[in-house]
Amino acid sequence: MRNGFTPQPCHDSRDRTEATEYDGVSAEGGDRIRRVGVIGAGQMGSGIAHVCALAGYEVKLNDVSVERCEAGLATINGNLARQVSSGKIGEEARQSALRLISAAASLEEMSDVDLVIESAIENEEVKRKILRELCPHLSPDAIVATNTSSISITRLASVSDRPERFIGIHFMNPVPVMELVELVRGIATEDVTFETARAFVTSLGKTIAVSEDFPAFMVNRILLPMINEAIYTLYEGVGTVEAIDTAMRLGARHPMGPLELADFIGLDTCLSIMQMLYEGLADSKYRPCPLLVKYVEAGWLGRKAQRGFYDYRGEKPVPTR
Ligand SMILES: CC(=O)CC(=O)SCCNC(=O)CCNC(=O)[C@H](O)C(C)(C)COP(=O)(O)OP(=O)(O)OC[C@H]1O[C@@H](n2cnc3c(N)ncnc32)[C@H](O)[C@@H]1OP(=O)(O)O
Ligand SMILES: NC(=O)C1=CN([C@@H]2O[C@H](COP(=O)(O)OP(=O)(O)OC[C@H]3O[C@@H](n4cnc5c(N)ncnc54)[C@H](OP(=O)(O)O)[C@@H]3O)[C@@H](O)[C@H]2O)C=CC1
Q1: Which terminus of the chain has a smaller tally of CB atoms within 10 A, N or C?
Q2: Could you give the ipTM of this predicted complex?
Q3: Is the pTM of this model over 0.80?
């Protein structure tokens, strides 16, 4: 792994009922989790399934159709192969990770998972509908997590049948590469749920930052207004797409320019996060840039749609403004 950490399977030879002590709280830790369900096989869901399987968890990947699940599996296969070619993992690890992931055609197939991570699109209605449909199929003690970028964990938990076993586990994109995961408790999240999630995330080789449950948590509260401001900078004609990205890559040492990063995240996701900040914090400083709205309305959602602030359909990305 990039951070030098080798993920450890949580379900080793220890007794599964063995409790672990964290800060005085008795948690069943990672041993509690063996099977993980992931809902949404897009860029994040496939990345989450990837890192879980590499750490030795059995993974069931669900999306709106079998074709979507298969596309997610193909992405995982490609990213694992990339890790093999760069020497990050061996061929054996790739094969055993692939063996651990299967497509789940329906939510009913989640009945034997210990943890579900919801990672469908950043749309509260869609997430609520998934949670309402999902919960009746789960075992009563399964933990439900959401990878939402911005939506209130407390609010999403309230539509589930288990707010005390509900938590935000917010991975960063690209999941196999980024070290951070934000952990966010809802108002009712029990300590044992939090500690189990903490042990699980640690077993993936990730570092945790704990955030309170406020709109967009920490990373996106800071990052997305910067991206939105870059779009305003473009909208007001201060610089071109290339000039703005070059300025931030070379002038602030960001690995990607903000417009390139917006395309990478997905412009629909960026807009949803800005709307959540704008409405949730009721402050005009979070007003989504009208140009961002226009790109989303055009369906120019960034890399995943092959067009956003750059056009990705040719050999190399070409700015669209
Ligand atoms: C919106 C939210 O809710 C929260 C968020 O996630 S905000 C977004 C946070 N993410 C960022 O800010 C990413 C910023 N960008 C970067 O860090 C880097 O540009 C990057 C890691 C994406 C690519 O790095 P790079 O050095 O330019 O490119 P490259 O050398 O091709 O890739 C570096 C590694 O990342 C891997 N990688 C790149 N893109 C990947 C992807 N989409 N999926 C999986 N792995 C990927 C590559 O395989 C490579 O791995 P190895 O070291 O094993 O070879
Ligand atoms: N992109 C990013 O950088 C990050 C995103 N996130 C969060 O992760 C989540 C997923 O984002 P991301 O992977 O980028 O989005 P994508 O658009 O890449 O993937 C979302 C997937 O969810 C599917 N989906 C839509 N409705 C349902 C449903 N009812 N049941 C199951 N699957 C469904 C979509 O299918 P279809 O395409 O057919 O609609 C799509 O395959 C969001 O909550 C986002 O905020 C978190 C961290 C970083």
Answers
A1: C
A2: 0.96
A3: yes
